Amino acid sequence: MDKNYRDFIEHLKQDTTKNNDKLVVLLNTPGGSVETVERFVNINKHFYNEVYFVVPDNAMSAGMVFCLSGDKIYMDYSSALGPIDPQVYNGKQFVPALGYLDKVNEFVQKSTNNCLSQAELLLLQQNDLAFLRLCEQSRDLTVSLIKEWLVNCKFKNWNTHSQTGAVVTEYEKIERAKEIAMKLGDNSLWHTHGRCIDILKLNAMGLKIDDYSNNRELKEAIRTYNNLVISFVEKMKFPIFLHSRNYV
Question: Which of 105, 137, 163, 166 lies 20 to 30 Å from 240 when distance is taken between CA atoms?
């Protein structure tokens, strides 16, 4: 999708009849490749000073990571982001890297405690070390990107603490970003790759979300547009769909 997305954004940027300094992305996705997300973000930042994300339904896994590259994230009470768990291709299908690593670590811990069963030992021996390393690299890349984007984008205008009014330091931004990245990637906290993290949970971990739940006109406009696009995508069976005011 790299080329498709590049062409899509370039075509949108060519429209000189509109203010082209700000990009608003209405995102609805089950997730995907964090490497692809990084390419998307680089394209966005080349053309736009500000990027906002609107999540009417779900932005899971890599979709969550994409949202964290924005200056603002808009959601309502029913919207959800998903735990960060990069998808890695194992030769047959894409699998959640963190879930894979967690299971291997569980077997290793059992082995350390001398309580690993023969069946578990056989499963452990069948693991490809190169694939395990790929999972680790995908995890580390995801966390690294989240920390970078939160500090440079989401937190760039976070200058004072809301309660005390004290100045926010660069160190505090980095530490908050680390904390959020670790929480979003904590499988023991979310349990499943498909777990929905709502606006209350996101705000509680310090990731400020712009809530449009009580803005009836805006909420209806977003849902009407989103429902229309989703219906069209499902009818046409498109795996991926890009739409703007002057591009389909």
Answer: 137
